[in-house]
Amino acid sequence: MESRTDEQLLAAYRKGETSTFRTLIERHHEELIRFLIRLLSDRQAAEDVFQDTFLQIHQSAATFDTSRRFRPWLFTIAANKGRDYLRKKGRRPQLDLSAPVGGDRGGEGDNGGAMYIDLMEIDVPAPDAGVDRRERDAMVQQALESLPPALREILILAYFQRLSYIQIADELEIPLGTVKSRLHAAVAAFAKQWKILNNGSKQA
C-alpha cells in the first residue's frame, strides 16, 4: 500500500515516476466523484469533469508548490471545471471563486478560527436509523439542489475542502463578515430543507 503523501507522489511524478499519477487518481476518485455529483447532479458529467480535472493536474504539475497541500488544489480545480460545465449548460453559479487554493487543509498553521465543517451540525441519520445510505444520499442531494447556486457551491466546497474563514475570504477576495454570513445562510437553508425532507420520509 502506497504510504507517501499526495505531495510526495506529485513530486515523484514530476521527476518521471509516472505510476504515482495513477495512485493519485485512484486515491481521490471516490471522494472527488461524490463532490462532483453533488455539484453537478449528473454522474456522467461528474466523470467527465473528473477526467478534465486530472488532465489539468497533469498539465500544471510543474507549477505546483509541493510544500503546500495537494487536496485543496485538486478540489478547487474540480470546482472550477464544474462551474465551466454548468455555465455551458446554462446553470451558471453565482460565486466567482478564484484560482487554486494554496493554504493548508483545515486551516492548520493559521488563526482562521472556526471551520465551516463545524457549522454542519445537522441531524443526518445513520443508515441504521431507518434511512439507508442510498436514501440518505438522495435526500442530501435533493436538499443541496434546493439551495441557490451560490449557497450550494460554497457549502459543498466548505465541506470537502474544510478551509478556515480567513482562507476563504482570501480566496474569494471578500470581507470575513461576508464569508461568515454566506456560510451561515447556506447551513441554515440546508438544515431547513433537510428537516422538511426528513419529516416527509418518516411520514411516508
Number of strands: 0
Share of residues in strands: under 5%
Name of the CATH first level of the largest domain: Mainly Alpha
Instruction: Give the total of domains.
Output: 2
List the main descriptive attributes of the protein structure presented here:
Rna Polymerase Sigma Factor, Chain: A; Arc Repressor Mutant, subunit A; 2 domains; mainly alpha
Explain this structure.
With 204 residues, the chain is mainly alpha-helical. It has two domains: 1-92, Rna Polymerase Sigma Factor, Chain: A; 95-204, Arc Repressor Mutant, subunit A. It contains eight helices and no strands. The chain has helices at 6-14, 19-40, 43-60, 70-88, 133-145, 149-161, 165-172, 176-203. Helix 1 (6-14) packs across helix 2, helix 2 (19-40) crosses helix 4 and helix 5 crosses helix 8. The chain is globular and about 55 Å long.
